[in-house]
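Worked example 3 (structure in, sequence out).
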């Protein structure tokens, strides 16, 4: 007698598969990390003019949808370089070729951020703070509520966001793990 002790890749499918049509003229879409929200860029023709909108839906397990927010946008979809959801999924940061836009769903607000365009945007570190690496190697936190910047660390060549900390490579080839306050948590020398 042989017993099966392990089974891999078991897929269960429902008898009836259903679908949900969100929009018929969607140009692009962005799914939130929790998979509970989806943002669609769609076109609507009004008075013979085509307008673009960013619509945020909340998706329910019973395949129903609810519109959370609707924003008219003045840039074209291909111009969207990066799209970031805040951890609580209430704020969206859009990076385009010409500007950075902050879209808040509660209360509904659209703000063009006064940040330079040649920064390396890393994303949200909290619900209120966006982090970027500027052209001079400064790792900067930008508060989206009071619109103020704070330098976290200097002398960085490149950084990546890792949950609540950063991995930064400095100009001397040293890789540092840095916390939100700029404290070095770990150092790894990469030079031979």
């Amino acid at each position: 007698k042989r017993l099966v002790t392990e089974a891999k890749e078991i897929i269960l499918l429902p008898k009836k598969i259903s679908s949900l049509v969100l929009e018929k003229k969607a140009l692009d879409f962005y799914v939130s990390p929790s998979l509970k929200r989806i943002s669609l860029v769609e076109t609507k023709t009004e008075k013979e003019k085509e307008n673009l909108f960013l619509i945020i839906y909340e998706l329910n397990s019973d395949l129903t949808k609810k519109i959370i927010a609707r924003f008219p946008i003045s840039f074209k979809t291909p111009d969207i370089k990066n799209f970031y959801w805040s951890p609580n999924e209430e704020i969206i940061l859009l990076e385009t070729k010409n500007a950075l836009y902050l879209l808040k769903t509660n209360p509904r607000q659209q703000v063009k951020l006064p940040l330079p365009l040649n920064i390396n945007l890393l994303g949200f570190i909290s619900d209120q703070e966006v982090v970027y690496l500027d052209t001079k190697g400064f790792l900067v936190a930008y508060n989206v509520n009071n619109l103020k910047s704070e330098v976290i660390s200097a002398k960085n060549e490149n950084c990546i966001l890792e949950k609540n900390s950063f991995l930064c490579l400095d100009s001397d080839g040293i890789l540092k793990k840095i916390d939100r306050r700029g404290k070095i948590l770990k150092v790894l020398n990469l030079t031979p």
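Notes: DSSP finds no helices and 16 strands in the chain. The first strand starts at residue 26 and ends at 31.
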